[in-house]
Design a protein that fits this description.
mainly beta
Length: 140
């Protein structure tokens, strides 16, 4: 009798979902990664953004540096959004998405895609990740 129950259990287990070794792996929850310093960059037009805590600094060639303070980010499992007040009382919105992004100019792959929205300007799209030269997080 025990042998019959064991065989029945094994047969049912064999009917369960099968894993596909060629299927892409599931991306781990990355919300915690948005609480670190982030650098974003893009081309066409060229731009760079630094996120350090609540401070956002946007640099573009031939344009004045835009510095703004956001009250914090709205963070979910796969994105973070900062809405910052500019000195002219308009807003800058920065969105960072947990989606791999490849810089077409360098071929470098970054862990995040980024978008910057400024008033009266086309969206700035690019890639984002840890600042260059940032130390890796210590392993526990």
């Amino acid at each position: 009798m025990r042998r019959s129950i064991l065989l029945a259990a094994l047969a049912l287990a064999a009917c369960g979902p099968q894993t596909n070794p060629d299927a892409p792996s599931v991306v781990a929850d990355t919300a915690a990664n948005f609480n670190q310093p982030i650098d974003a960059r893009g081309a066409d037009p060229s731009w760079g953004l630094k996120i350090r805590g609540l401070q956002l600094t946007l640099e573009r060639p031939g344009q004045p540096t835009v510095m703004a303070t956001a009250p914090g980010a709205t963070i979910d499992a796969h994105s973070a959004v900062w809405t910052a007040s500019l000195p002219n009382r308009q807003t800058m919105k920065v969105s960072v998405y947990a989606s791999p992004c490849t810089d077409p100019a360098t071929g470098t792959t970054y862990p995040f895609a980024a978008e910057v929205l400024l008033p009266d300007a086309a969206p700035l799209d690019g890639c984002a990740g840890k600042p260059a030269g940032a130390a890796a997080a210590p392993k526990s």
